[in-house]
What does this fold into?
Amino acid sequence: EIITRQPEAVLEFILKTLHRGATIYPATGAYSGQDWKVVHTVVGRRQALAIRRVLKEAGAVAITEGRHSIR
It folds into this structure.
C-alpha cells in the first residue's frame, strides 16, 4: 500500500510501465483529519524497487509491505 496525496504518477507507472493492476481508495488521517489516497497493488520484489524510485518523485509519505502466501 502506498499513501499519497497525488497518486496519478504512481498509478500511471504501475498500470502502464509494470502492466499491473491497482486499487485506489480515499483515507483520512485519524489525528490530522487530512485527506489522503491509498494505492493498493501486488508486485514482485524488483517491481517494488522500481515503484520506490517513482514514489520519491511523487511525494508518497508511506509504503507498507506485506508478505503472504497461499498454498
About this structure: Helices lie at 8-17, 45-58. The two ends are 23 Å apart (CA to CA).
